[in-house]
Specification:
Elements: H1 7-22, E1 31-35, H2 38-44, E2 54-55, E3 67-71, H3 77-80, H4 84-87, E4 88-93, E5 99-105, H5 116-129, E6 136-140, H6 143-148, H7 156-165, H8 170-173, E7 179-181, H9 189-199, E8 204-207, E9 211-216, H10 219-242, H11 252-262
Parallel strand pairs: 7-8
Antiparallel strand pairs: 1-3, 1-6, 2-5, 3-4, 4-5, 6-9, 8-9
Helix pairs in contact: 5-9, 7-10
The structure holds 1,3-dihydroxyacetonephosphate and zinc ion (ZN).
Length: 274
């Protein structure tokens, strides 16, 4: 089967285009990666050709031998749907987890995203803590979440609580909460290490003044998670634009009742008295 005809490729393209349509991917902003299933690799490998090994820039031994579909550095999400083979590709990780090689796509001398260290270190954590269930890592430049990183304290507690409060579905969609990485230089190992530490306990990490990383089982759940967090941030931005004093809101006890009925565990550290 051709790579472009495979269902997972179609899912990858649709997710990238949905993100573009949301306005989260100005120019080359954002990147997406998907850890392929072995049967998917077998299904499309007739189209593979082997590129040279190149350094990842970090070490991900638990991803040795895995194949990833990943967007290219400097590539525009806007173009993914019309120029797929130039905008993204498939890479293989070597047996040490230190190098990758391009097996398909990234045509015209393209390389994987500059955030490959963050993507792969997040995948490595999620593969371990979810027993291999999680396959998608998504980075987007979500406008409202970025705006909030200029006005809220940069703590997991404040961001989680504020975003939970703005839409009743939030604590059900991300019960574990959200992590925050202070401003750091993007594109390297250092920010990847900090982000992957947060991915041990959360599915979402905010990069202050930059954007968000979301992790999930499949394209729908990961996109839906990003969308839910950003929508909640939009409601908070609108609310703060009207007033800095909410007249009423969802209280800590309300959250405790919700947790019981919806059978989710909400860590008490987010249910502080304000
Ligand atoms: P890439 O074009 O290298 O994927 O970088 C975009 C980005 O969002 C960096 O954080
Ligand atoms: Zn970015």
């Amino acid at each position: 089967m051709k790579v472009l005809d495979a269902e997972f490729t179609q899912g990858f393209i649709r997710m990238a285009n949905d993100g573009w349509e949301q306005g989260w991917h100005e120019r080359n902003g954002g990147n997406l990666s998907y850890r392929m299933k072995s049967e998917e690799v077998d299904m499309v490998k007739e189209e593979f050709s082997t590129g040279d090994w190149r350094e990842i820039g970090t070490c991900v031994p638990d991803l040795a031998g895995e194949f990833f579909m990943v967007t290219g550095s400097g590539k525009f999400f806007r173009n993914v749907i019309i120029k797929p083979a130039e905008s993204f590709g498939i890479i293989e990780i070597d047996e040490k987890g230190e190098n990758y090689r391009i097996m398909w796509g990234l045509e015209g001398g393209a390389r994987p995203t500059s955030e490959l260290p963050s993507h792969l270190m997040n995948h490595e954590v999620k593969k371990r803590v979810t027993d291999g269930k999680y396959r998608v890592i998504y980075h987007a430049h979500t406008t409202n979440v970025i705006a909030l990183t200029f006005v809220l304290p940069l703590t997991d507690e404040v961001f989680t609580r504020e975003l939970w409060e703005m839409a009743t579905e939030c604590p059900v969609v991300f019960p574990d909460g959200i992590g925050v990485v202070p401003w750091m230089v993007p594109g390297g190992r250092e920010i990847a290490v900090e982000t992957s530490k947060l991915m041990e306990k959360y599915d979402v990490a905010i990069w202050a003044h930059h954007g968000m990383f979301a992790a999930g089982e499949d394209f729908d759940l990961t996109f839906g998670l990003m969308h839910t967090v950003e929508k909640s941030a939009e409601i908070l931005v609108k609310t703060l634009s009207m007033t800095n004093a909410k007249r009423q809101t969802i209280t800590p006890d309300d959250f405790r009742h919700l947790a019981k009925d919806f059978k989710v565990t909400l860590p008490e550290k987010f249910l502080f008295e304000k």
